[in-house]
Specification:
The chain is mostly helical. Helices cover 78% and strands 0% of the residues.
Length: 110
């Protein structure tokens, strides 16, 4: 299961990074904002994404023991979304010792 999760989160990280760069090279976020904001489904999708980011961040805040780490990850998750979230998951998976059960990745560090 660990190799699968590492591949999954690495694929999400790469996919979202490439998609973000490709899209930003085609059109600026600020240039597209007017037409984006006029589409109710686009706005609802944005709300949905940020609710998901906050949900994920609650877990990160639980795991991170320092306020500095909590603040840093909040800024990264709110600014980069799934790119930061997949990076956090990868970091946690690679930090997990081989002899520890996979569910330990969900728990707060000692």
């Amino acid at each position: 299961m660990r190799p699968f999760l590492k591949i999954l989160f690495a694929a999400i990280f790469l996919w979202m990074t490439v998609a973000t760069i490709r899209t930003s090279l085609q059109v600026s976020l600020w240039a597209a904002w007017g037409s984006f904001a006029a589409n109710p489904w686009a706005v609802a999708t944005l709300y949905d994404a940020y609710c998901g980011f906050i949900t994920f961040y609650v877990w990160v805040a639980y795991k991170e023991r320092s306020w500095g780490g909590r603040i840093l990850w909040f800024v990264l998750i709110m600014g980069l979304g799934n790119i930061a979230m997949s990076a956090y998951a990868l970091i946690e998976l690679f930090r997990l010792p081989a002899d520890e059960p996979l569910e330990r990745v969900l728990w707060r560090r000692a």
